[in-house]
Amino acid sequence: MIENEFKVMLTAEQYESLLELYDFETFTQVNHYFDTKELVMSERHITVRVRELDGKFFLQMKLPTSVSFSREELSRELPELPDTISGAELTELSGVECPDVKRLGELKTTRGVWKFDGGEVDLDRSEYFGKTDFELEIEFTDEQAARTVLNKISSRLGLTPNGGVCTGKVRRFLEEYKKSLG
After folding, report:
1. ∠ CA 103-129-125 to the nearest 5 degrees?
2. Which terminus in the chain has less CB density within 10 A, N or C?
């Protein structure tokens, strides 16, 4: 599946204001990120995570595409949260040669979802390594409808969306992970 999304970082105040604009359906998910000690997968712009949602675990890989706001996302359910994932399992899922990876840590997100014709607005509050940040994601199948929603939200909150591209969760997580190593 190809994932198309615009992302904008928010302040806590912008997050609270946006919560009041739409009737969001809210839930919590935990992303457990995996990589090698040398962060080989990150260097290849490949995300490996196990998403924990409602007591279930889903191995997910995100692979780069030729479009800046798109990523190929692959997923399959796991019986439990592993500490390591074999390269063979990742290669089988993705068709890309991969090394063995280990669990680096977790990022907990409280997500609000509001759907519109052609996509959805995801409002995220994420916690990892003692840090909290706020992000607006607009996932879409209809790019024009998504741009219209992004522009409406931007004008209401005074955002400068920077083309709808910001540093993703995994990159922010990895920055804090590296700091935690000393």
Report:
1. 105
2. C
Predicted pLDDT of residue 28: 98
Q: Are 63 and 130 in contact (CB under 8 A)?
A: no
Distance (Å, whole) CA 141 – CA 149: 13
Taking the C-alpha atoms of residue 35 and residue 43, their distance in angstroms, rounded to an integer, is 10
Whole-number pLDDT of residue 18: 94
What single letter denotes the amino acid at residue 177? Y
Give the range of the structural domain holding residue 55, as residue numbers without chain letter: 2-180
- Work out how many domains the chain is built from and give that number: 1
Ranges of residues in the chain whose predicted pLDDT is under 50: none
- Give the pLDDT score at 165: 58
Domain harbouring 158, CATH code: 2.40.320.10
